[in-house]
Amino acid sequence: MIRFLHYLLFTIALSSTFPAFASKEGVLRLDKFQFSSPGIGQSGPVVVSGEQDSNQVVSLTVQAFGRTVSLSNDQLAKLRGGFINGAQISYEAGYRELGGRTIYVILSKGFTSGLQETQLVSVKEQGAIEVNDAVRK
User: Fold this and answer.
1) Which of 133, 103, 109 has its CA nearest to residue 119?
2) Rounded to whole angstroms, how far apart are CA atoms 131 and 124?
3) Fewer CB within 10 Å, N or C, the chain?
4) Distance of CA 57 to the CA centre of its chain
5) CA separation for the pair 32, 58 (Å, rounded)
6) C-alpha to C-alpha distances, 88 to 4, 46, 120, 137, nearest whole angstrom
């Protein structure tokens, strides 16, 4: 009988709910950032720099193709700032008829489990800038 009571208590203990307190990963946002690449192909050196506060991206500048372009206030407003904690850059040789060479800047929010949100900024050789909406994963 005592053995049965032990098993019963053990079963009850395993099936009861205990509050679980798990550690939660948080975003360490970038406030000021600058990264550079020697480039590939005809891109030449590429330098991307920017700044964000807790609500928005306040500046983003791309140096490539021997020129420097900065996003306008309207373009900056399209970026979902405040939580950016990652970035990457890439290059496309492109076709001159379609705008030529392009630098792509991806700004992201992510965790060790993966990216949660990304935005793409495209900078064409002639200086045209395009900002795409955030893509949530």
Assistant:
1) 133
2) 12
3) N
4) 12
5) 10
6) 62, 12, 10, 17
pLDDT of residue 129: 95
Burial label for 131, CB within 10 Å (0-12, 13-18, 19+), is buried
pLDDT digits (tens, 9 = 90+) for 87-97: 999 999 988 88
> At CA 51, angle to CA 49 and CA 56, rounded to 5?
135
30 torsion bin: left (phi>0), alpha (psi -120 to 50), beta (else) = beta
Query: CA–CA separation, 100 vs 93, rounded Å?
Result: 7
Tell me if residue 114 falls in helix, strand or coil. Answer: strand
Task: Check if the beta carbon of residue 128 is closer than 8 Å to that of residue 99.
Answer: yes
> Does 78 or 7 have the greater pLDDT score?
78
Residue 27's beta-bridge partner residues? none
- Asked if residue 131 lies in contact with residue 119, where contact means CB atoms within 8 angstroms, the answer is yes
Q: Give residue for tokens 């500048």.
A: 61
35 closest CA partner among 90, 112, 115, 102: 90
Distance CA 20, CA 106 (A): 36
